[in-house]
Each structure stands twice: as C-alpha cells, then as structure tokens.
Design a protein that fits this description.
By secondary structure, the protein is α+β, with helices and mostly antiparallel strands. It has 3 domains: 8-149, Immunoglobulin-like, CATH 2.60.40; 153-168 and 340-470, Tetratricopeptide repeat domain (Serine Threonine Protein Phosphatase 5, Tetratricopeptide repeat), CATH 1.25.40; 171-336, OmpA-like domain (60s Ribosomal Protein L30, Chain: A). 45% of the residues lie in helices and 21% in strands. A hairpin with a 2-residue loop joins strand 9 and strand 10. The radius of gyration is 41 Å and the shape is elongated.
C-alpha cells in the first residue's frame, strides 16, 4: 500500500527553528510532501528485509541551510532494528549529503534490515531530526509500512535423499534346457542322445518344476540348428528336418509329464552359437575369427574367409562345429518370489534365507526406521551391500542422526550423483548452505530438487520454480516456489499432497486470489499443525481475513 507522509507537524517545528517567517507557508505545504515505500508490504528475502523509500518535496519546502537526518526503524514484537541514517541538506549547505533544492525535488533511498524472529508483526517508521545553526529539532515519528511477509520461510529445507532401489523381482523368469546333438549332415536322432546327461538333467528340472508350487511353465520350445558349414540353402533344409525329428524326440523325453506341446523352430545356420562358442574357447587367433564375423554378413563369405585361416579351421571342425549340429529343448518358467507379506514374516522367522535383493526389499517394506537400520546393517554385514550402506545413511538421516548418517555415507564405495546429493543434504542440515549448493550442482539431476530449496533460501525464486517443477515426492516446495513467483494457477495445480503444510499454502493461494471461503476452509485443515495455527495469527498473508 502506498503511503503519503504529511510532514506538517515535523516540518512546522523544523521551519520554526530555521525560518520562522515562513512557518505558515510550510504548514500550508506540508500536506503536499509525499512518502512512499516499495514494496508496499515489506518482505523478507534470504534473511534480509529491503525496501525503497521515495520522498517528494514541494517547492519552498526545504530550507537552503538546513540538514535533515532520517533514521528508518523497523519496530517489531520484541525489539526494533535501525537501518543506516539518511542525511539530506539544503542547497547552501557545504557537505556531502544528498541535496534538496528549495524548488522541491524527489529523493530516493534504500533501507535494509536483517530479519529476526518476531518481525512478522512489524512496522517501518521514519524518525527525523532537523539541524540548523547547532540546534536539533526532533520531528514526529511517522509510519510508512506495516507488516513483513515471511512466506519463503515455509520452505521445507531439510532436503531429500531417496533410498536406493533394490532389484527384487516379484516374478523371476527362468528356463530349463537340454539338447541333443546330430552327426554331420544328419537329421536322425541317435538313441544315446535321448539318454545323455543334458537330457537327464532337463527331465529332472521338469520334475522339480511340477513339484514346486512357486514355479509355472509358461511355454515350451524346440529349436533346431545346422552348423555354419556347407551351403546356406542346404543347411536350411537340414535344420528344418532336424526340427521335425527333434519334435518327435520331445514327445519321448516329456512323456508322462503333462507338458504342453512345444513351439517348433528351425534356425538354419547357427552363426550366433558359433560366435558364442568361439568367444568362450581358447582357439588360437579367435580374435581373427570374430573380426571376420563382424566384417562380413554374407554366410558364404564368412565360411570362405574362416576356411582360409587353415591353421584354425581344424580346431573349429573338432571343437566347435559339432556342438552346433543340435536341437534345444526349452521350458520357459516363471518363479513366484516371496510376497511382501512373506518377506515381512521371514524377517522375523528366517531372515537368513533372504538374499541381498530380498533383504533390501524387505527393509523398504517396513515403516519403522529403527527396523530399517537393523536390516540395512544386516545387508552390509552379510553381503557387503553398497546399496545397503547407502540406505543405512538415509535411514539415519530420517532419525536426525547426522553423525551416523555421514559415517555411513563415507563408507559407500559407489561415488555417484546420489551420494553427492546425500552430502549436500548433510551440509544443508548443518546450516552450511554454500557447501550444500556445491554438492547439489555436482549431483546434477539427483540434486535438482534440493537445489531448489537452496534457491528459495537465497531468494532465487524463478530458478527455484524451474528446479522444482518436476520434483518427485512431496509437492510442498514446488507449490511454495510457484507462490513466491506469483504463479498462483501453477501453485494451485501442483498442490496435490494432503498435509496441513500444503493446506496452509493453499490458504495463501486463496488469500492472494481473494477467495475468502477457501481461505477459511484451508486454514481449518492447516490448524491441525500447532505451529501453523500459531503462525496464522501473525501472518501478513491473512491480514485481510482476520
């Protein structure tokens, strides 16, 4: 609100001392002296309260030989704070203060105060002294602004460090597999192949699957191949014939096991299998063979180039190619892992059966932070779990145990952006905003939301809104950043969280929009927090609704 300061009384006294003959004229002109304050409601930003004071003097107001000293004072509940003294001089005074002509003029100055608690219910007043020929006349005190907005202090500044995710799978996809081998250029299944160790193991696995209530066969396959030697067309036909005989062999292998018929496939030349076997082998010049595979895609060219490596080809014929004259028998299986309820129960009954991922997932399921700490310690001790070590630090942060959290984070081996963010939050909670900001910048996207907190604390509201626009988790700081940028529609849309704190922010939005009914509604919800109920009583945001 723009205020006009009528300096009638103050200036009348002053002029009586410096120019008694013009006292009546000064009295008549006093009503034309104007004082304004910008902002009209004082605002705390980054711990400071700053404002611009503008005084417009009319003609014949300021005595040419007078000095005026004005002290801006912020009076609040519990004390007062003074800004620097503002000094002005008449045009005949030989000093270095701002000169004001007797013909009138406009004088602008800045005032500054460091915020202290209690300034929410403050008013800014000017205390003046006019000096002339060694005499000082105290001018009446006048108010120029009421109240201090401290909405930015609603920021949740503890920072966020998310737990690292586990890789626990509710359903694990598995396969059971066996294979038979064929003689060169043959599609006939030898009886001994049906009794091989590979087939025996496959049958054993099928029996185990049937007896395990957690396992379900979701599909079966028979896949036939030919080794990549000879013509491509010939090998395609050979592979097709092998798929037919392998399908019949499947019926013998799975007889009496109540398993659905397989999907039968014929691959032809098995170049992929060839590559895998060569990579795993100790064949001399295997890198040369692999280079040929990468350079040429035409099967005939590949075979020709490989045969040209005569010293190697004999090893391929004896050690690799026979393994590619094959058919695979595959059962695709889904394993139903422990349910959340089972995991929570196993924590108490048989925790040692849980592997690292199950243990980390169980810790994520429990709500008690002390229990989380216990489980993450177990993961660290039993599996040397680096994610468990990190999450242990996060759990300590939740408990407010900063020393323990820092100790845990310093033992984490994976030096990634998430760890950098964690150290930033530690600095933020210790009150070292500068160090926190350095960590958040290094953390890149992982520290983005927390950087938004720093931006709010530093008064960079526009940047904060950008940082917090896509922040996950609690929407509180995002809503606040939009409010501070006067983007009320965006703030309203972002206010999706249900909490007294967000309800309070909704009440501020409603107040700024002039919606009294919503102010009442949201403040009722916000009063569930005792601290917010206390704040409401002095918050300048609701001055028009009391």
């Amino acid at each position: 609100m723009k205020k006009e300061l009528k300096l009638f009384a103050a200036l009348a006294v002053s002029i009586a001392m410096v120019a008694c003959s013009s006292a009546e004229k000064m009295a008549q002109l006093a009503q034309n002296v104007k004082v304004s304050c910008n902002p009209v409601v004082l605002e705390a930003v980054a711990g400071s309260i700053d404002a611009d004071i503008t005084v417009t003097y009319p003609k014949d107001y300021f005595h040419p030989k007078a000095i005026l000293e004005v002290t801006p004072v912020l009076v609040y509940n519990g004390g007062e704070a003074k800004s620097k003294v503002l000094k002005y001089q008449g045009e005949k005074v030989k000093d270095n203060y701002k000169a004001v002509s007797s013909n009138g003029g406009v004088v602008k100055d800045k005032v500054h105060f460091d915020y202290v608690e209690g300034m929410e219910q403050a008013h800014l007043e000017l205390r003046g002294v006019a000096r002339y020929k060694g005499k000082a006349i105290k001018l009446p005190t006048k108010k120029v602004a009421d109240g201090v907005n401290t909405t930015y202090m609603l920021v949740k500044q503890e920072g966020q460090v998310p737990y690292k995710a586990d890789n626990y799978q509710a359903v694990i996809k598995q396969t059971a597999e066996g294979q038979i081998l064929y003689k060169v250029n043959s599609s006939e299944v030898q009886s001994k192949q049906l009794k091989s160790a590979s087939i025996a193991e496959f049958q054993k696995e099928l029996d185990e699957i049937r007896s395990n209530s957690r396992k379900t066969i979701t599909g079966t396959e028979v896949v036939a191949y030919a080794s990549p030697e000879g013509g491509e067309k010939y090998n395609k036909k050979l592979s097709d014939n092998r798929s037919k005989t392998a399908d019949k062999a499947w019926q013998n292998i799975t007889k009496g096991k109540d398993i659905a018929d397989p999907e039968v496939k014929s691959i032809g030349q098995d170049w992929e299998g060839f590559r895998e076997l060569v990579e795993k082998s100790n064949i001399q010049d295997k890198d040369l063979i692999l280079r040929v595979l990468s350079m040429y895609s035409d099967p005939a060219v590949r075979e020709s180039e490989i045969k040209n490596i005569s010293e190697v080809y004999s090893e391929l014929k004896s050690g690799v190619l026979p393994e590619l004259r094959r058919a695979r028998f595959i059962a695709n299986v889904e394993y139903q892992n422990y349910t959340p309820e089972e995991l929570v129960q196993l924590i108490e009954d048989n925790i040692d059966v849980l592997d690292e991922e199950a243990l980390l997932h169980a810790a994520a399921l429990v709500n008690n932070t002390d229990k989380k700490i216990e489980l993450y310690k177990k993961a660290v001790d039993k599996y040397d779990s680096d994610r468990g070590q990190f999450n242990l630090g996060v759990a300590y942060l939740e408990k407010g145990q900063l020393a323990n959290a820092e100790h845990s984070f310093r033992k984490v081996q994976t030096k990634d952006d998430e760890l950098e963010n964690a150290f930033g939050v530690l600095a933020l909670r210790k009150g070292d905003v500068q160090s926190a900001e350095q960590h958040f910048k290094k953390a890149k996207d992982a520290g983005k939301a927390n950087q938004g907190v720093v931006d709010i604390l530093n008064g960079n509201y526009s940047k904060a809104a950008q940082e917090l626009a896509d922040a996950k988790g609690c929407c509180h700081n995002t809503v606040l950043a939009y409010i501070l940028n006067d983007q009320l529609d965006k703030a309203e849309a972002a206010a999706r969280c249900a909490s007294p704190e967000v309800a309070y922010l909704k009440a501020i939005i409603a107040a700024r929009k002039g919606n009294g009914n919503d102010v009442t509604k949201f403040l009722k919800e916000a009063r569930k927090s005792a601290s917010l109920a206390k704040r409401e009583a002095t918050d300048i945001e609701f001055a028009d609704y009391r």
